[in-house]
């Protein structure tokens, strides 16, 4: 019973320490640009172009579609074990092509916005 209480107390202490460290994390915005600190560091802001277009950021739909089409095409080649190898190779190649095609379409058709991101820079 004593070991259970000790481990429970340790878990609670570790959780509290983690939460307090996260609460002290600093986030800087454009209003902080140029701010200097005693250790010589300062806040620097940059404008960054961000794509807001991808509902499927991992391109799963393009990869899956390409793999199915590639596998079907690869299955039409060879006989026996060669056909199996061609099916697997076609699926892999088709998945890669499908992923790239979807990525290009997302970039071409996507919305872009400019955001200001700020960070603390140390010398």
Structure in words:
This protein has helices at residues 2-23, 60-74, 81-109, and strands spanning 42-51, 112-121. It has 123 residues and is α+β, with helices and mostly antiparallel strands. The chain has a two-stranded antiparallel sheet with strand order 1-2. The model has no long low-confidence stretch (mean pLDDT 82).
Per-chain topology:
Layout: H1 2-23, E1 42-51, H2 60-74, H3 81-109, E2 112-121
Antiparallel strand pairs: 1-2
Helix pairs in contact: 2-3
Q: Which oligomeric state applies?
A: single chain
Shape: flat
Q: Strand order, biggest sheet? A: 1-2
Question: Termini, distance in Å?
Answer: 52 Å
Uncertain runs: none
The H/E string reads HEHHE
Helix content: 40-55%
Biggest β-sheet: count, sense, barrel? 2 strands, antiparallel
Backbone CA Rg: 26 Å
The overall average pLDDT, rounded, is 82
Task: Determine the strand fraction and express it as a percent band.
Answer: 15-25%
Task: Note the total helix count.
Answer: 3
Would you report the number of β strands? 2
Instruction: Report the structural category.
Output: alpha+beta
Task: Summarize the entry for a quick read.
With 123 residues, this protein is of the alpha+beta class. It has helices at residues 2-23, 60-74, 81-109, and strands at 42-51, 112-121. The protein is 54% helix and 16% strand.
Q: Which key features would you list for this structure?
A:
single chain; 123 residues; alpha+beta; 2 strands; 54% helix; 16% strand
């Amino acid at each position: 019973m004593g070991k259970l209480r000790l481990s429970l107390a340790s878990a609670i202490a570790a959780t509290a320490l983690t939460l307090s460290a996260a609460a002290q994390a600093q986030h800087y915005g454009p209003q902080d640009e140029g701010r200097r600190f005693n250790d010589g560091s300062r806040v620097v802001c940059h404008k960054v172009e961000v794509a807001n277009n991808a509902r499927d950021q991992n391109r799963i739909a393009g990869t899956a579609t390409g793999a199915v089409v590639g596998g079907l095409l690869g299955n039409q080649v060879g006989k026996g074990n060669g056909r199996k190898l061609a099916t697997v190779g076609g699926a892999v190649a088709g998945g890669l092509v499908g992923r790239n095609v979807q990525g290009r379409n997302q970039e071409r058709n996507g919305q872009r916005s400019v955001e200001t991101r700020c960070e603390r820079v140390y010398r």
